[in-house]
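Subject: two folds for Thursday's group meeting

Dear M.,

Sorry for the delay on this. The cluster queue was jammed most of the week, so I only got both jobs back this morning. I'm pasting them in the order they finished. Each block is the input sequence followed by the predicted structure tokens. Could you check whether the formatting survives your parser before we put anything on slides? The first protein is the one we discussed after the seminar.
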Amino acid sequence: MKTVSKLALAAASLMLVGQGCIQITGTPGAKGTDGGVLRSVDRGTTWQSKSSVATVGAAKSFAGNDVTTIAFDPSDKKAVYAGTEAGLFFSYDGGESWQGASSLGGVAVTAVAVSPSEKCVVYVGTGNRVMRTRDCSRTWENVYFDPRPDARVTSVKIDRLNPATVFAATNKGDFLKSSDGGASWSPIHRFDTEVRQVLMAAADPRVMYAATKGKGLWKTTDGGAAWTDLSAGMGEFAGALDNMILAEDAARGDSLVIASNYGLLRTIDGGATFQPLTLLTPSGSTVIYSLAVSPKDSSFIAYGTVNTLYRSIDGGSKWTTTKMPTTRAATTLLIDPANDATIFMGTTLLKQNSGF
């Protein structure tokens, strides 16, 4: 999804309701410090800042940090993880309060994956490393290291049917696999360009999509052993292969919505064909920083630009525009699959000339 500020972006989900009125309540921050994580519990009508860190003494918050990724614990949706430019934060009460993973340090976290079978086992991508905790963030160990100093781990995924199988992708184009929970790794594919996002299908973890920089969209149906280039079907849409953000339409199955420099495309046949969605802005005129499809209802689609949320309740035929509830851009959106009224927004303070 793109480099906003210093880090790669992630994509997730948002819902459309009401008449496009977004309000933010709670204690507002000054410009540049009203970021961190925001939460809506009414499908995006109102938002609250949810970046307070549980502590004794003076109040603390990570509202001044850029959020690069948000992830749920697959077995406990009250457990939420936020990767930021300055460390990992986690909440066990649905975002009401957060703790910092102090033993990990103030590192830039670009990917988070939580084991579906052991909630205390968490992997993060940070710089040229994959780190793992097996004791709920009390201690961390380095399980993968790329000796190239400019390498960066962009995605970490765990096979939900076999949690000992872990995948990692890098900006150097390496797609790596561990079959023993991170103890050892093998490069099973090389894309020869940056892998910007990996999406693992909810119904079948063997099915994954990889959005790359300059080399298009790829798909595997066998857990990464073989990949098919899907770019040919997107070629007629100018800019569709640049700065892609992938969002699965899990309710439909075998379906994606893809944001790019073109705008939005949808595939309902696993990438065999693509259809454009008509947006309010002309094709190629708007930078999209986040994309969302409800995991429960294919009709709900949303995407975020630098200052606006665009939301649709009819699959993209009509759109409602709403002003962003923060001075920052919504660069990460995640909807709770167990309760699609709850949405988390991760924000980034865009620098001048920042983009993908």
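Second protein, same layout:
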Amino acid sequence: MSTVDRSRLHDLMAVERERFVASHRRSGQLAAEAGRHLLGGVPMAWMTRWPGSHPVFFAEAHGARITDVDGNEYVDLALGDTGAMTGHGLPVVAEAVARQAARGITTMLPSEDAIWVADELARRFGLPRWQLAMTATDANRFALRLARALTGRRTVVVHDWCYHGTVDETLVTVDAHGRTVARPTNLGPQVDPSLTTRVVQFNDVDGLAEALAPGDVACVLAEPALTNIGIVLPDPGYHDALRRLTRDTGTLLVIDETHTICAGPGGATAAWGLEPDLLTIGKPLGGGVPAAAYGLTQVLADRLADVLHADGIDVSGIGGTLTGNALSVAAMRATLASALREEDFAVAVPLAERWAGGVAGVIAQHDLSWTVQRLGCRAEYWFCPPPRNGAAAAAAVDGELDAFLHLHALNRGVLLTPFHNMALLSSSHTEADVDRHTEVFSEGVAALVV
């Protein structure tokens, strides 16, 4: 079995860094200018996670391509970490946004588009009642508030190394003694996370049963498959057990489809026949325009009717002044009407299969103990056998190897999601795009192994 030559890895990384600097001079100049007043030198701190000595500044993006300010063109396999899952600059969305902007962006009044969007979300996901949000973080935060209000319970349960945006209750993990603690990079948590949250390992039915047994849990907030620590798929029967245990203990089940919409037009909920009490989704709904939504069963909607029509709902912790603005809703209608449809997944999923097959072929060629995981049109490679939970996934991260393969690909015109080794395929990609990644990946791996 082959292994990675670590000394060679360091030498190759130095070469790639030099190549990056030489081919991204304008981005380097802009990065220096950005450092004057932008905190961390970027609009959002995680933009520093890209490989290379400074961020790459983009000039334009269309379909599955990005061109940077130095004129370098990339096959974009990151797609805004799902935010641009439909492809960049969808003409239908751009036209809808332009039309709505000319008519008014936000008025505190509903638009007709909101009716269409709610009907479409109900059709896709099977939940009959919906409200809108600006981000999936908002949608998850609102869902947790509703769950606590409906059950009178304060505790929530999440999976270890899950990701549900910047929701305080979910930026957690467990320590060596199994106690709930803040994630290592969680900045300034407002309270001890053990006061709000219990953490269980994904695919651990016994651990889930133990966490729910006291009968004090408002809801389980769960991704159908872990994605932000890498793709961790559910064991057969795990979702059946999750639904049974939540019902048996009077616990609500909230499914977050923000990333797992890659499984199909109705996400994993439709593809796998899940039955959540509430569902949240954000990122791709507006074709790149900030937009999100959360849905719930009719039973829960009926129980909330008086609350949602009460005086003071504007300071209830649900919503915001720009939530449901006409621009975002117009973008959602245009996106859902023209993208993320069966015919789009019919193109994207086979491309993801081709991507996974190409990577698996390179791994087999070099007799490496690496593996590939795929969920719909999302795929990813691991430097280990497939993890079954977030703890194993986190332990398997190889930062040096990640950084080299990402920078090697970037220098050759292929962008991967910077947080892990994930590729997201869209109907804008082509087989040639996929094969280019396989070629670049093969070259990078061949340079490393002994």
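Two things I noticed about the second structure. The chain has a mean pLDDT of 96. Residues 342-365 form the longest helix (24 residues).

Cheers,
T.
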